[in-house]
Amino acid sequence: MSKLKIAIQKSGRLSEKSLELLKECGIKFPDFKSKLKNSATNFPLEILFLRDDDIPKYVEQGIVDIGIIGENEVLEQDKNVIVVRKLGFANCRLSLAIPKETDYSNLSFFKGKKIATSYPTIVRNYFENKNIFAEIVEISGSVEIAPSIGLADTIADLVSSGSTLLHNGLKEVEEILRSEAVLISNENLPAESEIILESFLFRIQAVVNSRENKYILLNAPNESLDQIINILPGMKSPTVLPLAESGWSSVHSVVRENEFWRIIDELKKCGAEGILVIPIEKMVL
Ligand code: PRT
Ligand code: ZN
């Protein structure tokens, strides 16, 4: 029986979360760490551990069928691959940063400036689109120290918490793009691999949905039920059950993680009490 081949980063920021995703999809591998190649015991999947920079090329060439990689790398390399879906982890942004004591008003600041980056293609395209000429200095790592050693005036680098910029005396002034881990695929998958990919994607969907949503239970005074139901759309609509105490109901629903705090505030204003929020293990729509 044929197997779907997936490339994931050998070691780095994407590795652990990529393996966790496979695990949550119920896919088991024997003795993960020691080998560069491994086969799942309960799903037709073969996994190759590679440097992240090599993954788009291997997918384009069909050496592997699919891969997990940062969107930033897909855009920078511009290989012929399909971005199948976003995976919701390794979120970051590619930003322009300048020495923190320097005044900044707008993008024309960068006219004629030297910008150190590991993403020359993205940064060049960005400035070309804005009709600004800036000199790109390509370096492969430790980009943040470039201004302090006189290699460049400014930088364009990935930022997540922002603490690396802070420690290096830099401030973020513009965001070029946002990125997260994505699943990419070869453009011409063999029919058999396509079928396996469908079933793999079905599992990923259930895992990613469950991470992005929370199950919520609360007690609501009956007179506010209509309002509360409006705030909580749920998968179809919320479940409403009467409480033993008359005049009150228990409401169960699903809310999106990123809307969560706004929804809680609104629910409290409508008189909701005893709000419980529970993680969802898997979610099949
Ligand atoms: O060895 P290999 O080539 O496989 O790995 P790598 O060193 O090229 O990549 P790695 O593991 O550092 O990053 C892999 C992917 O993780 C990137 O391509 C991004 O898609 C994603 N990612 C998410 C990040 C970050 N967040 C991130 N913060 N990649 C790098 N950083 C670096 C950034 O370059 C900067 O030096 O972290 C520093 C900033 O972090 P904060 O939290 O201080 O802002
Ligand atoms: Zn890399």
From TrEMBL:
Q: What is its main location?
A: cytoplasm
Activity regulation summary: Feedback inhibited by histidine.
Native organism: Kaistella treverensis
Gene name in the database record: hisG
Q: Do you know which InterPro entries this protein is assigned to?
A: ATP-PRT_HisG_long, ATP_PRibTrfase_cat, ATP_PRibTrfase_CS, ATP_PRibTrfase_HisG, HisG_C, N-reg_PII-like_a/b, N-reg_PII/ATP_PRibTrfase_C
Q: Which SUPFAM superfamilies match?
A: GlnB-like (SSF54913), Periplasmic binding protein-like II (SSF53850)
- Gene Ontology terms: biological process: L-histidine biosynthetic process
Hey, which pathway is this one from?
Answer: Amino-acid biosynthesis; L-histidine biosynthesis; L-histidine from 5-phospho-alpha-D-ribose 1-diphosphate: step 1/9
The UniProt family comment states: Belongs to the ATP phosphoribosyltransferase family. Long subfamily.
Q: Name one GO molecular function term.
A: magnesium ion binding
Q: What parts of the sequence cross the membrane?
A: none
Domain of life of the native organism: Bacteria
Q: Can you tell me which residues the record assigns to a coiled coil?
A: none
Task: Report the cofactors.
Answer: Mg(2+)
Q: Where in the cell is it found?
A: Cytoplasm
Give the reactions, separated by semicolons, that this protein catalyses: 1-(5-phospho-beta-D-ribosyl)-ATP + diphosphate = 5-phospho-alpha-D-ribose 1-diphosphate + ATP
| Matches recorded under Gene3D superfamilies | 3.30.70.120, Periplasmic binding protein-like II
Q: What is this protein called?
A: ATP phosphoribosyltransferase
